Amino acid sequence: MQKKLYIVRHGQTLFNKKNRIQGWCDSPLTKLGHRQAKATKEYFEKRGVTFDKACCSTLHRTEETLKDITDLDYYRYDALKE
Length: 82
Hints:
Blueprint: H1 14-17, H2 31-46, E1 55-57, H3 60-69, E2 75-77
Parallel strand pairs: 1-2
């Protein structure tokens, strides 16, 4: 059985908007960031892509993005860092 891995970067954050480097610092998604994540959800839906599992880093911006993309229960991994 073939498996596919989809990797998605978080949507725009407040620090992105202010041209600040954030690294591991956490910054919330902007309204645009949420729209970007929801557009990603629509992209997957239009192509019939479904997910068995979901995970993200422990950064809030990645969790916000994931929640906008799927309603699946998910795992947060500290080892997933940018």
